[in-house]
């Protein structure tokens, strides 16, 4: 039976006077991939930035409502701990340019002041790179800089870096939007596999990608959650006229 790991309740978010998320209610089941889909500017990035408490780092940003991780309100938890529990990968691959591949993977531990011994570090690096489907390509080059890698490999390195912290939730913000089709296919294959062991929330404005990789889809439009449900169901029989128009390419 699927269990809820994250629940967003009556949640709104603003930049100054501009409310960009309006009374969102949404639940995420453990070990599933949920796509957050919608046209540019509809609030997708803001939503996932609220989920790991990055939205509040913007001056004048405001939130109201609740986001519960395992029934604990993340807005009543130390944000540093929240960001450790809820990892994030951004649109553009951003490995630390001065660090080796190895050091990039375990960067979260060093930044958080968590000491691992050599054996734990080696194990974490290998496990994380295997989960991110990058191990075979880099296992003989772990001490080279991460920036030597291709864009697609760098993005998988960023996924490995997030996974190394064993997050409860992995947030991916349009992780393939800066990548070529082959690297995109590689990442889609990787997340399709990863969702069997990890809970993933993936922003995409690519309808075909949402259809290929996700179990559930949330359709956001102008800051409102228009529709949410199992991906197959929504794509074959959208309930809301706006969802249908979006899926048939009438806007966005
Ligand atoms: N740093 C910011 N300051 C003010 N407004 C912002 C900022 N970032 C995003 N916005 C506004 O919030 C809305 C939602 O943006 P965003 O969440 O980035 O949408 P999406 O990811 O769906 O393209 C947009 O109207 C955008 O202009
Ligand atoms: Mg965005």
Any overview of this molecule?
Strand 7 (169-173), helix 8 (181-194) and strand 8 (199-204) form a beta-alpha-beta unit. Helices cover 36% and strands 27% of the residues. It has one domain (4-247): Rossmann fold. The longest helix is centred in the middle third of the chain and has 14 residues, at 118-131. It is an alpha/beta fold. It is built from eleven helices and ten strands. Bound molecules: adenosine-5'-diphosphate (ADP) and magnesium ion. Magnesium ion binds at residues 44-45. Residues 15, 20, 38, 40-46, 58 line the site of adenosine-5'-diphosphate.
**How many domain regions?**
1
Q: Main β-sheet, in a few words?
A: 6 strands, mixed
Beta-strand fraction estimate: 25-35%
Distance from first to last alpha carbon: 35 Å
Shape: globular
What are the secondary-structure elements, in order, as H or E? EEEHEEHEHHHHHEHEHEEHH
Q: What portion of residues is helical? A: 25-40%
Ligands, deduplicated: adenosine-5'-diphosphate, magnesium ion
Instruction: Let me know the average pLDDT.
Output: 96
Using the coordinates above, name the CATH class. Alpha Beta
CATH architecture descriptor: 3-Layer(aba) Sandwich
Radius of gyration: 18 Å
Strand order, largest beta sheet: 6-7-8-3-9-10
Structural class, judged by helices and strands? Answer: alpha/beta
CATH topology, by name, is: Rossmann fold
> How many distinct beta strands?
10
Low-confidence stretches: none
Number of helices: 11
């Amino acid at each position: 039976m699927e269990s809820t790991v994250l629940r967003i309740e009556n949640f709104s978010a603003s930049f100054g006077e501009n409310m960009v998320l309006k009374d969102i209610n949404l639940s995420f089941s453990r070990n599933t991939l949920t796509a957050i889909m919608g046209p540019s500017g509809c609030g997708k990035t803001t939503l996932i930035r609220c989920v790991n408490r990055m939205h509040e780092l913007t001056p004048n940003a405001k939130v109201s409502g609740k986001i519960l991780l395992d029934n604990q309100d993340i807005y009543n938890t130390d944000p540093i701990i929240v960001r450790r529990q809820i990892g994030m990968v951004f649109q553009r691959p951003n490995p630390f340019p001065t660090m080796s591949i190895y050091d990039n993977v375990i960067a979260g531990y060093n930044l958080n002041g968590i000491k691992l011994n050599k054996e734990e570090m080696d194990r974490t690096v290998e496990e994380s790179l295997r989960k991110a489907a990058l191990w075979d390509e880099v296992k003989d080059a772990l001490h080279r800089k991460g920036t030597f890698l291709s864009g697609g490999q760098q993005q998988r390195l960023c996924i490995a870096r997030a996974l190394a912290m064993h997050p409860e939730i992995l947030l991916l913000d349009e992780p393939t939007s800066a990548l070529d089709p082959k690297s995109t296919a590689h990442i889609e294959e990787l997340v399709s596999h990863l969702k069997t062991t990890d809970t993933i929330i993936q922003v995409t404005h690519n309808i075909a990608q949402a259809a290929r990789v996700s179990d559930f889809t949330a359709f956001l439009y102008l800051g409102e959650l228009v529709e949410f449900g199992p991906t197959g169901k929504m794509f074959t029989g959208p309930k809301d006229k706006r969802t249908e128009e979006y899926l048939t390419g009438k806007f966005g």
